[in-house]
Write a structure and sequence with these properties.
With 331 residues, the chain is of the alpha/beta class. The chain is built from 16 helices and 9 strands. Bound molecules: nicotinamide-adenine-dinucleotide and magnesium ion.
Length: 331
């Protein structure tokens, strides 16, 4: 079983007298900065001069400075800009100011694990990765609890990297829930695998294939949309609340029997073999090299793929149907 740390395992006083520099003020950045600040921690947010996030951070009462100033003045530097721009920010603004007194932190292991960023050996390098989007993390914190997180240590130069990382975890509220120990390698590889094979890639492909199957068989696209996309949320919510068992308890016996007998026909040995292949390409660095090269080359293929899928019939039908659902936020 995994090692899990709870409130009693953290010493938040380790952050006293320390300045925490949070780079970026997006999904994760705003939640980390605000939660730390509300816990009495000295926080400064690092943003470029022209950043559109600057006004929001200042309006929230946070102090904001340029990334290089923040790197220079902070004891702990938490990197919360998008993974694709972390290397550039690290080389231009962080690396010149690193020394053995500082800790470099991440919320995802991609750049460290795939060696896009190689910090000096005398710097502590750790991860606190909250298992929730930033807005959820902030909301749960303001309600008095916290979201679970992962902790990992890449370099322990000081010998105190773990207790220091756990103190940071307490600062952002995750100790109220619990923090699970992992490694940069495990977090990075499982995160990529999850989003590619199940969460984003697998689910989107499954939904499209189900929609196309029904529409090609002559059913109305509007009905197909409800059956394979809209209702997915209801099912996922049940799984989130109480696992597969609770979902099966809540659906009809007919649905449950179809689940046991037809599910494995869809996700068969071919799909499992493909999952192993996707995992192997994550583990051997093939996916990381492809994605890094794509960004170096201007992201043209990525943009083309995005446009291609945005024009899928399910998106057009969905946009019309969602206008009927006044309870949904407009996107
Ligand atoms: P994000 O896309 O929300 O934005 C990050 C912020 O970085 C922006 O708001 C901006 O302030 C700044 N920024 C954007 N482009 C920049 C550029 N070119 N140069 C400098 N700064 C720039 O990012 P995020 O989703 O919060 O992700 C930050 C880190 O947290 C990543 O490592 C990500 O993997 C990790 N993470 C994200 C989530 C999540 O739910 N979003 C969850 C766990 C971990
Ligand atoms: Mg993830």
């Amino acid at each position: 079983m995994a090692t899990v740390y709870y409130e009693k395992d953290a010493d938040p006083s380790r952050l006293e007298g320390k300045r925490i520099g949070v780079m970026g003020y997006g999904s994760q950045g705003h939640a980390h900065a605000l939660n730390l600040r509300d816990n009495g921690v000295d926080v400064v947010v690092g943003l470029h001069a022209g950043s559109s996030s600057r006004a929001r951070a200042e309006a929230a009462g946070l102090s904001v400075a340029l990334p290089e100033e923040v790197a220079k003045a902070s004891d702990v530097i938490m990197v919360l800009v998008p993974d694709t721009v972390q290397r550039g920010l690290y080389e231009s603004a962080i690396e010149p100011h690193l020394d053995s007194s500082k800790t470099l932190m991440f919320a995802h292991g991609f750049n460290i694990h795939f060696k896009e960023i190689t910090p000096p050996a005398d710097v502590d390098v750790s991860m606190i990765a909250p298992k929730a989007p930033g807005h959820r993390m902030r909301e749960v914190f303001t309600q008095g609890s916290g979201v679970p997180a992962l902790v990992a240590i890449h370099q322990d130069a000081s010998g105190e990297a773990l207790p220091n990382a756990l103190a940071y975890g307490a600062g952002v509220g995750s100790m109220r829930a619990g923090i699970v120990q992992t490694t940069f390698k495990e977090e990075t590889e499982t995160d990529l695998f999850g989003e590619q094979s199940v969460l984003c890639g697998g689910t989107a492909a499954l939904v499209k294939a189900g929609f196309e199957t029904l529409v090609e068989a002559g059913y109305q696209p509007e009905i197909a949309y409800f059956e394979v996309l809209h209702e997915l949320k209801l099912i996922v919510d049940l799984m989130y609340e109480g696992g597969l068992k609770y979902m099966r308890y809540s659906v009809s016996d007919t649905a449950e029997f179809g689940d046991y007998t037809r599910g494995p026909v869809i996700v068969d040995d071919h799909v499992r073999a493909a999952m192993k292949q996707v995992l192997a390409q994550i583990q051997d660095g093939t996916f990381a090299r492809e994605w890094i090269a794509e960004n170096h080359e201007g992201g043209h293929r990525f943009k083309r793929l995005r446009e291609q899928d945005a024009g899928h019939q399910i998106e057009e039908v969905g946009a019309q149907l969602r206008e009927m659902m006044s309870f949904l936020k407009q996107h």
